[in-house]
């Protein structure tokens, strides 16, 4: 199962990177995908990101106080929830309370 790791800012990136490394050691069938890790340097990142978002049906949003209002976090959350009955989006909160994202 492919899992998109969505992030913005340095703290969100650190959390996403740690999850990218850790998740496959816990559940071997998971294929985490993170833009900073899985897009080749020098590649056109936007078409690759859009392709991965359209193929994925599960995502983890690494949210921090600095990134909670970042446009790309909202874009990626919307793209991941494209098929309401088949998509899953899970917020991973760092320095936030659940009421901060309502």
The major pleated sheet works out as: 4 strands, parallel
The count of DSSP E runs of length 2 or more, i.e. the number of strands, is 4
Query: How much helicity do the residues have?
Result: 40-55%
Distance between the termini: 28 Å
Low-confidence stretches at least 5 residues in length (pLDDT < 50)?
Answer: none
Residue fraction in strands: 15-25%
Major sheet strand order: 2-1-3-4
Average of pLDDT: 89
What is the radius of gyration computed over CA atoms, rounded to a whole number of angstroms? Answer: 13 Å
What does this 3D model show about the protein?
It is a single chain. The protein has 102 residues and is α/β, with parallel strands linked by helices. It is built from four helices and four strands; from the N terminus they run βαβααβαβ. Helix content is 42%, strand content 20%.
Question: How is this fold's topology laid out?
Answer:
Elements (H helix, E strand, L loop, with lengths): L1 E5 L2 H18 L4 E3 L1 H4 L6 H11 L2 E6 L7 H10 L7 E6 L9
Parallel strand pairs: 1-2, 1-3, 3-4
């Amino acid at each position: 199962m492919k899992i998109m790791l969505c992030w913005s800012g340095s703290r969100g990136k650190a959390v996403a990177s740690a999850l990218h490394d850790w998740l496959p050691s816990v559940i071997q069938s998971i294929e985490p995908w993170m833009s900073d890790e899985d897009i080749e340097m020098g590649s056109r990142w936007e078409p690759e990101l859009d392709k991965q978002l359209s193929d994925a049906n599960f995502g983890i949003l690494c949210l921090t106080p600095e990134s909670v209002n970042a446009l790309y976090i909202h874009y990626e959350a919307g793209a991941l929830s494209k098929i309401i009955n088949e998509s899953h989006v899970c917020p991973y909160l760092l320095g936030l309370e659940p009421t901060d994202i309502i």
